[in-house]
Amino acid sequence: MAASAAALCKVRFMARVVQKFGGTSVADVERIRKAAEKTKAEVDAGNEVAVVVSAMAGVTNQLVEYVGAMSPMHDAREYDVVVSSGEQVTTGLMALALQEMGIQARSWLGWQMPIRTDDSHSRARIKSIDSSELDRRLTAGEVAVMPGFQGITEKNRVTTLGRGGSDTSAVALAAALNADRCDIYTDVDGVYTCDPRIVVKAQKLDRITYEEMLEMASQGAKVLQTRSVEMAMNHGVRLYVRSTFTDGDGTLVCDEDEIVEDQVVSGIAYSRDEAKITLVQVPDRPGVAAAIFGPLADENVNVDMIVQSTAADGALTDITFTVAKIDFDRAAKLLGDLQQEIGYEAVIADSSVVKVSVIGVGMRSHAGVAQLMFKTLSEKGINVQVISTSEIKVSVLIAEEYAELALRALHTAYGLDAD
Ligand code: ASP
Ligand code: MG
């Protein structure tokens, strides 16, 4: 009787956890040891643990440079072979660190699991994870260590998941293993209301909804890869962002109904990764937007914000939009080629812009959020160039030089400052 009660207790309190350590957490042998202590703590608590690691900080950048130096117009399949290698090193080292602590651990490379992806090399998407063997071993008390970022196609070619993709590997694994939690260990102790390097009064959030986190990540907050948040939301994975270097609960990314606090705006994000393009004197006729944005989409250039005014004389108008800075040259060339066809007069390009976004699910039920943003910016003499909104976000494009001023002023205006 007593024995079975104890067994029941064990079943009840044991959790299955996926831990992910980012590049700064595995930057050298000493840090890997430190990270391994976080794993040991979970094992000691009786939990089943799978670990996902990034490459050592800076290594992936170095590998990308090697590829560029060898072959500027490189074959993406070989790019993946090279850049996926940083994670192999840390995976083996992490398994060794755990073994040194007396923990039964082994490594599983992406192809050994395997983690199947599509064949969009350098930005592949995970299609399936065969976790049956891992499942069995976790249950038997072994710790599994896996490289983030890696996958393999149906044709057995190595793929990578796009920069920052280890977050997505971890969430996908957590979903496949039906884990109770996915802990993303990084060098900050959670998700903040705004970048604390710019806004000193930024506060750590205890909780944030998946939707808000998704907006934060896609609007420029670099703490999680956007796709990982999307996947966590779709699979209901409880995601914690926490620090490898300090103790603490971090920030829980979860469903809206788990959040009691009722802030209208939860956070402010910014992105310097966009550039603005204005087509001057575009004929105002049906089909012109399609003639501009169709070819851009065909070339995989993502357009973010768009404004078009009506022509006063009903004939010509300007169209302004933003694209990612890395797509900027391609977009400009493409539009140049299309000048005749579209019939615009000139292109004006400006990359000294920053996009600032206020984000919060509370916007659904509160009016005046955008108004407060415009008022605050105007009081600081900051001109708003482009606006875009979603149900839970208002974004504005402003001149880059005002980024800091705008972030601080908005942070205060929405009542987010720490006392
Ligand atoms: N090492 C890869 C990168 O730097 C993946 C990751 O760290 O998430 O992008
Ligand atoms: Mg990262």
Question: What does this 3D model show about the protein?
Answer:
The protein contains 14 helices and 20 strands. The model has no long low-confidence stretch (mean pLDDT 94). The protein has a domain at 13-187: 3-Layer(aba) Sandwich (Carbamate kinase). Helix 13 (369-379) packs across helix 14. A hairpin with a 5-residue loop joins strand 7 and strand 8. It starts with a helix and ends in a 6-residue tail after the last helix. The chain is 36% helix and 25% strand. The strands form 5 sheets. The chain has an 8-stranded mixed β-sheet, with helices on both faces. Strands 13-18-20-19 form a 4-stranded antiparallel β-sheet, sandwiched between helices. It has a 4-stranded antiparallel β-sheet with strand order 15-16-14-17, covered by helices on one side. By secondary structure, the chain is α/β, with parallel strands linked by helices. The structure holds aspartic acid and magnesium ion.
